[in-house]
């Protein structure tokens, strides 16, 4: 909501036509845009009509309606208590969700109102009352006209007496404002005006320079503003009285402008000037709060640097002191900026308090989440609210001095203890750059030494609620992706029991869909369909050799310091080599480290770190041989089938031969059995090509085919020409022979390069290859399958069974449905891209984990496993 | 897919009369999964062989299996069923030779009632237990058993398939009924195709040979145990993506390994002793509300619910299958309301902070931590000791020193899913450090017989705080 406007009633829900009293000026009734509005009036005073006229139907919760819901009879008085329980529940839920809510009940008794006020306070929402004070005779008259109101005038009179008795003390009950509409005429003339809250500055989109606790350090503030590019405006005496930024940036102070430092009045003069000119905003800090209290003559302890401020202010004239007092008195607890994406509060603010108003909210914003206890230095113990923060909005705050500002769950503390001889720090938003200037000296001795960080980071703590139940995740590529609770449940088990430490599981590879079925005789998959599918969507594609091993994601760090500093990996390998489901590839950490070292050395030798300006990279790879990871599966599933077939079919063939020799007619059966024997022989050959013994890293090959992310950059785009070129350099620089290149051909679609590439594929497959992957090569990220696999004819025997090439099977298999698989591939890809974005921008681990977890959950959806 | 029955009882061709299949004909029998053929590779006065050959249509098989099973694993498409002498073969045998199986023959009643020399060959029998089990099952029935493991092509290992040849003098009907029951038992796979009711009946009525069979326990167990198959569907798909197979099995209840199944039946019920020790620790702590993390099938929950002291009992497991098992084992559906109100079952994980864990006086991690990768122990500590912070935490875990008493070697663990097993010094060191980090005191006890050399089989740490 922006400026106060009349509350629009949506189309199609036109209010009943009650003409505004003619010739009467409308009476504005201003209520907060996010609030609880309690209508008060006797039965028949016109509350429902009033509500319907001024509010959306969903905003109005009527006691009669709730009575109907719990009893099928809106006038069943025996259901009243349950009806009100329901009403309070609905009101509570709506307010928690930040929705304007209107209660349509008589509310003439204090007890009924107290219950509603309590509900609102618990949700930190303001409450207004609108009293419809209509003469009892008119109300009674209206009731008589309605068949469902069979109670007599006595009830109305009693209600009216209750109301009269209440009116005087109404405000004191806890309502922010009480609007009394006297008589039917005023009721008819009323017009609702929604008032935006003080905190709501969502229309301010910046860019902002957010400035940490200044604490009277005027000189440092001037230096910082200059550093940030502000032009400072001075008065005749050379005092800074304002500042403006040539690019129209706006400064936002996180509070605690005053106390401790050498020039509190100077800071106030400058900031007041900036605010007055509309160039700055400031929230209230606990020091302003206390100073105002003192200036207003209330008793406060003159400690923590207050004495300095008072002494300095004494030297100013009375007019300045009055102005300063009124400025500080008017500071609000927190601001919602940039469409709600940015929240500024002095001591931070948990999500449920954003944009809310109550004593608790203000206390939190000023002092943080305190326990009421004090620590060994006599300072209040503060709970690490930021660690639990899971909100979308960025929260910027100060209050607790830290050595270095650090992002914790999308929150940052900018108080770098300038007055204690530290620095004065600003955050550029939305750039998220930190700029700071050193203190000129220690202006005030700290009670407690500065802590290295505001919060001891514990990135490993993930919350069940981050991942459980039905979840909806936003992606740039395909919009909302839904994860079903049952799939999340399966993923929870796998993540908890088998996956690597979440700090290592920053990405999981999406599944890949196969091409449309081929109509080439004897083939289920063929390159022609892949080219056809991309034609018109991309000009060029790359055909990449599909290595037949196991998919692996490698997090490679330049050195153990990077692993520790950037990813917090202080135990275990200095990086990760993960399987598709996030497990460590090797049970032995030493093997992981050894493999990572080989990759890192190759990166160093090839100058890749410098070229990509990074100290780490996330690689998408295939790890060979297949048997290195999947030996158990191969033995149990594939070799076991071959064993059974190779034992049984020769025996069957010889039994049939013997029968034929006796003159029995078994020719057809014998021919079919013979074919099956040769099929199972080819099946056995097919899987054996992908198995070879390994010992330690001997025999292990790693084929990286895409750089997914590096510091500050999500590189998972469609420029595979560049990816492969980068990786060629890496492979070439590997002196150990572990790294393996990926053969490829680029194809301009619609040219005879297509046919040449198909021949190339045939050769690859004939030499025992699994097949290839066709990927579009283009700029940008269109909504497009990121790749299509085209698997070889013999390889597919492993997947579809030895006999799949029989014409009757092949014809049926061509009918395979790919819709779900494609959708799964695209959704997983979209989630993966989001995860890489977050990794690159150092987002909190739980956010990355949500996405990675979702990919794993989607993998458990029932899709034909042969696709 | 192939089973041959040979006799040398003269005239051998009378085998055709017993089987009611003419030796000079090739007959086809329609089956739900394809076709069964009967033909005679040899048929002379001296020697006659009837071959039963199955042509399994993998598509029909997958469809029959896929329906209602919820299973979408690759196994339903690529499996040994078309080749192996499995329950499919048993079903076909039961149908095709149904009359012969009754042992009643109008044409040759005396022959049907007589023991005749028989030779039965199946080139590939999937057998969980290998050639040894084939011998154990058939030798006591009077067969001379030839059983040889089929090698795994491409690997220096044996497959689970066994080439089987049985020789003996036996009534044909009896031989058929033995094959009908024992082929699926050897396979020990989920046999959707055998009518469980029928087998159940057969087992209970105790066919002549079954009642006296030394392995009747295993035979009945394997027959009746495998009924549900589809609950693990989602996890199986993940396991396949992983390239791992059985590793995903939920480690619900586990016990010290025993040399044989018989020994297991006799062995000391350590889990009862362990539950007793945990209950005692909880009773002493004065806890009224208990959180059982990793509750498995709910053995501890059942005991907790019996005691009035525990007014609130929460069972948490990361496996939804374990929770289903607990729900069934505890008979939640017919538990009196006063009792069920005290119990909550929920899926959760000890490495994810969870606000539902808060508000309990005590938490139990009974035989749970050894299922966590060592790198995740710190996360578990944080969730349990740091966030949930019950007044009391009881942790039990195996004492690896005791493993020698189970005949386990140096690197062998008691369960496949154990990521580590600690000796007493390691457990004490971890417990002490965890207690220190999170402000608890800890007391360590042994559970089970306290072996002077190795210590007790299980170790327990009882943590408490003010």
What is the rounded distance between the termini of chain A? 50 Å
Total helical elements of chain B: 18
- Specify the biggest β-sheet of chain B: 7 strands, antiparallel
Distance between the amino and carboxyl termini of chain B? 69 Å
The dominant shape of chain B is: elongated
InterPro entries (chain B): 3'-RNA_MeTfrase_Hen1_bac, Hen1, Hen1_N, Hen1_N_sf, Methyltransf_12, SAM-dependent_MTases_sf
Family (chain B): Belongs to the methyltransferase superfamily. HEN1 family.
GO biological process, one term (chain B): regulatory ncRNA-mediated gene silencing
GO molecular function, one term (chain B): small RNA 2'-O-methyltransferase activity
Molecular structure report:
The complex is a heterodimer of chains A (867) and B (466). The relative contact order of chain A is 0.08. Chain A has 28 helices and 35 strands. Chain A has 6 domains: 5-195, P-loop containing nucleotide triphosphate hydrolases (Rossmann fold, 3-Layer(aba) Sandwich), CATH 3.40.50; 207-438, Metallo-dependent phosphatases (Purple Acid Phosphatase, chain A, domain 2); 468-514 and 818-867, no CATH class; 517-546 and 742-816, Dna Ligase, domain 1; 548-625 and 698-739, D-amino Acid Aminotransferase, Chain A, domain 1 (2-Layer Sandwich), CATH 3.30.470.30; 630-688. Chain A is an alpha/beta fold and 867 residues long. With 466 residues, chain B is of the alpha/beta class. Chain B has 2 domains: 2-225, 2-Layer Sandwich (c-terminal autoproteolytic domain of nucleoporin nup98); 270-464, 3-Layer(aba) Sandwich (Rossmann fold). In chain B, the strands form 2 sheets. Chain B has a 7-stranded antiparallel β-sheet with strand order 2-3-4-1-5-7-6. The longest helix of chain B is centred in the middle third of the chain and has 16 residues, at 172-187. The radius of gyration of chain B is 28 Å and the shape is elongated. Chains A and B meet through strand 23, helix 15, helix 16, helix 21 and helix 22 of A and strand 3, strand 4, strand 5, strand 7 and helix 11 of B. Strand 23 of chain A pairs parallel with strand 11 of chain B, so a sheet runs across the interface.
């Amino acid at each position: 909501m922006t400026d106060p406007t009349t509350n629009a009633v949506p189309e199609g829900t036109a209010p009943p036509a009650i003409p505004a009293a003619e010739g009467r000026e409308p009476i504005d009734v201003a209520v907060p845009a996010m609030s609880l509005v309690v209508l008060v009036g006797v039965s028949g005073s016109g509350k429902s009509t009033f509500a319907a006229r001024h509010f959306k139907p969903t905003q109005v919760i009527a006691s009669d309606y709730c009575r109907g819901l719990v009893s099928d009879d809106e006038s069943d008085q025996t259901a009243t208590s349950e009806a009100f329980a329901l009403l309070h529940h609905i009101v509570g839920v709506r307010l928690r969700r930040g929705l304007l809510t209107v209660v349509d009940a008589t509310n003439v008794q204090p007890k009924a109102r107290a219950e509603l006020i309590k509900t609102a306070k618990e949700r930190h929402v303001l409450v207004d009352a609108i009293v419809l004070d209509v003469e009892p005779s008119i109300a009674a008259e209206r009731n008589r006209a309605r068949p469902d109101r069979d109670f007599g005038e006595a009830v109305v009179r009693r209600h009216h007496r209750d109301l009269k008795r209440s009116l005087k003390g109404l405000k004191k009950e806890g309502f922010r404002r009480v609007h009394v509409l006297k008589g039917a005429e005023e009721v008819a003339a009323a017009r609702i005006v929604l008032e935006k809250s003080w905190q709501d500055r969502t229309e301010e989109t910046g860019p902002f320079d957010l400035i940490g606790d200044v604490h009277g350090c005027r000189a440092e503030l001037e230096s910082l503003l200059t550093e940030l590019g502000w032009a400072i405006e001075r008065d005749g005496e050379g005092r800074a009285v304002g500042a403006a930024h040539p690019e129209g940036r706006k400064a936002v102070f996180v509070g605690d402008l005053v106390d401790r430092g050498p020039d509190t009045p100077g800071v106030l003069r400058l900031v007041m000037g900036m605010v007055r000119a509309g160039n700055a905003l400031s929230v209230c800090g606990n020091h302003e709060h206390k100073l105002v209290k003192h200036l207003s003559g209330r008793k406060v302890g003159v400690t923590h640097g207050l004495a300095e401020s008072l002494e300095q202010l004494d030297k100013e004239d009375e007019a300045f002191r009055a102005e300063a007092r009124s400025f500080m008195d008017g500071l609000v607890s927190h601001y919602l900026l940039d469409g709600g994406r940015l929240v500024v509060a002095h001591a931070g603010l948990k999500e449920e308090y954003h944009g809310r108003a109550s004593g608790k909210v203000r206390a939190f914003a000023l002092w943080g989440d305190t326990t009421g206890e004090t620590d060994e230095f006599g300072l209040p113990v503060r709970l690490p609210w930021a660690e639990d923060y899971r909100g979308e909005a960025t929260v910027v705050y100060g209050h607790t001095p830290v050595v270095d500002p650090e992002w914790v769950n999308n929150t940052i503390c900018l108080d770098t203890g300038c007055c204690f001889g530290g620095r004065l720090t600003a955050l550029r938003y939305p750039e998220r750059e930190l700029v700071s200037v050193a203190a000129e000296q220690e202006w005030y001795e700290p009670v407690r030494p500065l802590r290295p960080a505001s919060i001891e980071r514990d990135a490993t703590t993930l919350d069940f609620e981050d991942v459980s139940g039905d979840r909806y995740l936003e992606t740039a590529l395909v919009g909302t992706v839904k994860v079903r609770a049952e799939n999340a449940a399966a993923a929870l088990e796998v993540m908890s029991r088998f996956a690597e430490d979440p700090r290592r599981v920053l990405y999981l590879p999406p599944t890949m869909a196969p091409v449309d079925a081929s109509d080439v005789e004897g083939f289920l998959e063929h390159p022609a369909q892949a080219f056809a599918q991309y034609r018109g969507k991309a000009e060029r594609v790359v055909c990449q050799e599909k290595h037949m091993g196991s998919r692996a994601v490698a997090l490679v760090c330049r050195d153990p310091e990077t692993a520790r500093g950037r990813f917090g990996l202080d135990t275990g390998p200095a990086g990760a080599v993960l399987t598709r489901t996030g497990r460590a590839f090797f049970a032995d950490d030493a093997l992981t480290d050894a493999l990572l070292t080989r990759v890192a050395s190759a990166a160093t030798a090839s100058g890749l770190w410098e070229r990509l300006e990074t100290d780490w990279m996330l690689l998408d790879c295939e790890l060979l041989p297949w048997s290195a990871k999947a030996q158990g599966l191969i033995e149990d599933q594939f070799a076991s089938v071959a064993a059974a077939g190779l034992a049984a079919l020769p025996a069957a063939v010889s039994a049939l031969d013997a029968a034929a020799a006796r003159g029995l007619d078994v020719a057809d059966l014998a021919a079919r059995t013979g074919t099956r024997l040769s099929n199972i022989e080819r099946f056995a050959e097919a899987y054996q090509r992908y198995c070879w013994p390994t010992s330690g890293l001997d025999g292990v090959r790693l084929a990286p085919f895409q750089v997914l992310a590096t510091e500050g950059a999500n590189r998972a785009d469609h420029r595979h020409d560049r990816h492969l070129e980068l990786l060629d350099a890496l492979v070439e620089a590997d002196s150990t022979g572990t790294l393996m290149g990926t053969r490829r051909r680029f194809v301009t679609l619609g040219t005879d390069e297509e046919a040449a590439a198909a021949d190339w594929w045939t050769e690859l497959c004939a030499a025992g290859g699994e097949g290839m992957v066709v990927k579009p090569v283009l700029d940008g990220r269109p909504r497009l399958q990121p790749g299509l696999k085209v698997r070889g004819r013999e390889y597919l025997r492993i997947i579809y069974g030895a006999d799949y090439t029989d014409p009757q099977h092949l014809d049926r298999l061509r009918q395979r449905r790919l819709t779900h698989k494609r959708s799964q591939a695209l959704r997983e890809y979209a989630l993966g891209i989001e995860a890489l974005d977050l990794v690159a921008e150092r987002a909190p681990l739980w956010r990355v984990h949500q996405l990675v977890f979702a990919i794993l959950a989607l993998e458990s959806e029932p899709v034909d496993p042969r696709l | 897919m192939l089973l041959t029955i040979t006799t040398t009882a003269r005239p051998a061709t009378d085998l055709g009369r017993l089987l009611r299949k003419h030796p000079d004909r090739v007959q086809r029998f329609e089956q739900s999964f394809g076709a069964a053929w009967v033909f005679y590779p040899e048929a002379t006065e001296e020697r006659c062989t009837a071959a039963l050959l199955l042509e399994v249509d993998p598509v029909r098989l997958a469809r029959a299996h896929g329906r209602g099973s919820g299973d979408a694993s690759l196994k339903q498409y690529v499996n040994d069923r078309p080749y192996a002498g499995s329950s499919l073969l048993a079903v076909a045998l039961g149908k095709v030779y149904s009359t012969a199986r009754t042992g009643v023959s109008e044409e040759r009643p005396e022959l049907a009632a007589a023991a005749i020399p028989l030779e039965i060959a199946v080139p590939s029998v999937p057998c969980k237990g290998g050639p040894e089990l084939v011998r154990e099952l058939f030798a006591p029935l009077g067969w001379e058993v030839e059983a040889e493991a089929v090698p795994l092509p491409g690997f220096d290992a044996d497959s689970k398939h066994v080439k089987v040849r049985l020789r003996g003098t036996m009534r044909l009907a009896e031989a058929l009924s033995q094959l009908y029951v024992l082929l699926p038992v050897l396979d020990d796979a989920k046999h959707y195709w055998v009518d469980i009711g029928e087998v159940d009946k057969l087992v209970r009525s105790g066919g002549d040979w079954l009642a006296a069979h030394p392995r009747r326990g295993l035979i009945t167990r394997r027959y009746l145990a495998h009924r549900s198959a589809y609950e693990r569907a989602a996890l199986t798909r993940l396991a396949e993506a992983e390239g791992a197979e059985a590793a995903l099995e939920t480690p619900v209840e586990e016990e010290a390994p025993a040399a044989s199944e018989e020994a297991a039946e006799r062995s000391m019920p350590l889990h009862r002793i362990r539950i007793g020790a945990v209950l005692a620790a909880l009773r002493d702590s004065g806890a009224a509300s208990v959180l059982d993390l990793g509750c498995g099938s709910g053995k501890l929950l059942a005991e907790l619910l019996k005691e009035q002291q525990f007014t609130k009992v929460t069972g948490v497991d990361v496996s939804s299958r374990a929770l289903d098992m607990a729900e069934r084992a505890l008979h939640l559906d017919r538990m009196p309301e006063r009792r069920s109100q005290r119990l909550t079952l929920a899926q959760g994980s000890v490495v994810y902070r969870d606000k539902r864990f808060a508000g309990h006086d005590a938490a139990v991690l009974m035989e749970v931590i050894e299922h966590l990768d060592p790198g995740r122990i710190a996360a578990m500590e944080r969730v349990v000791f740091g966030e949930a912070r019950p007044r009391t935490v009881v942790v039990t875990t195996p004492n690896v020193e005791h493993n020698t008493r189970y005949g386990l070697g140096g690197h062998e663990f008691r369960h496949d899913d154990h990521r580590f097993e600690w000796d007493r010094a390691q457990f004490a060191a971890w417990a002490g450090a965890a207690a220190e980090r999170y402000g608890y005191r800890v007391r360590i006890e042994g559970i089970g017989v306290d072996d002077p050399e190795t210590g007790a089989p299980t170790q327990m740490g009882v943590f408490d705080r003010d």
